[in-house]
Amino acid sequence: MARNLAENNKNEDIKLKQGIIRNLLKEKNAVLLAHNYQRGEIQEIADFQGDSLELSIKANKTEADIIVFAGVRFMAESAAIMNPEKIVILPNGGAGCPMVDMITPEDILNLKEEYPGSPVVAYVNTSAKCKAVSDICCTSANAVKVVNSLPAKRVIMVPDKNLGSYVQRYTIKEIINWPGFCPPHQRTTPENIKTLKKRFPDSVFVAHPESSPETINVADHVSSTSGMYKFVKESRAKYFIIGTERGIIYKMEKENPGKVFISSNPGLVCPNMKRTHLEDIIDSLSNLKNVIKIPEEIRLKARRAIENMLAL
Ligand code: 13P
Ligand code: SF4
What we know:
Layout: H1 2-27, E1 30-35, H2 40-43, E2 48-50, H3 52-61, E3 66-70, H4 73-82, E4 87-89, H5 105-114, E5 120-123, H6 128-132, E6 136-138, H7 143-148, E7 154-158, H8 161-168, E8 174-177, H9 190-199, E9 204-207, H10 213-217, E10 221-222, H11 225-234, E11 239-243, H12 248-255, E12 260-263, H13 278-287, H14 296-310
Parallel strand pairs: 1-2, 1-3, 3-4, 5-6, 5-7, 7-8, 9-10, 9-11, 11-12
The protein binds 1,3-dihydroxyacetonephosphate (13P) and iron/sulfur cluster.
1,3-dihydroxyacetonephosphate is lined by residues 36, 51-52, 125, 139-141, 182, 210, 224-225.
């Protein structure tokens, strides 16, 4: 009884905050973009939800004056790089991505020196400074297409070694890989999948390209986060083992009644994606806090790399 009361109060509180945010967004001509890993209560009120590529495209097309980016820093930075006339807010300024910090612009310049003439493909999970010294960006949704579009036999891919080896399966080009990785995605192992498949023999395992090659080897389907939504919707299977951040399961369950979604590993949580709460959105939008600022010289160079990707 007391538990039900506490639950009701919590739901009322969420609804109240969601209402405040929707009013603020309207009042300030702002748009709320949310990555597929965000908390359910944020996904519910977002103007648009998507994977990194879809969110970049959406940020480019919006007529709003303010973009509130519920995601991690590199995503909000990409929006700011492409939209200097708009205010881009990262509601929780501490929401970073450890993979981004695994490479520096100097590392990229050294790679260029070591492999002269080889273009650099930077995963969007990089800093603006790293993008500024790269030739083209990619996301997990378009990495194979981006690499295959380049007129070079050898391509440098940074910073995710797993995305690089995933792309290597689909290209005859030589990929020069950097040893970066996403810590949460490494928690899913082939052993996890073996155990889960024993419990759910008819299940389908869906993996993200940030997973290790060994995990990708046992996957039934590999795609970006939005690619996963499409796959599970179209599939006739009932049980799905989801090999990416658990936040994605919220919408999967909502959109697919009757289907069962099992997280590949209870530890597959991105703490940075979970840093953003409704309160952060209210505070940052009311007070125009955590506005992303990128020095113009870096912005212009980084923009070229993102534009090259979007042109595809
Ligand atoms: P997606 O582009 O597939 O949404 O992935 C972003 C990300 O950070 C995955 O960890
Ligand atoms: Fe970075 Fe991994 Fe979190 Fe994506 S899931 S934001 S790659 S730490």
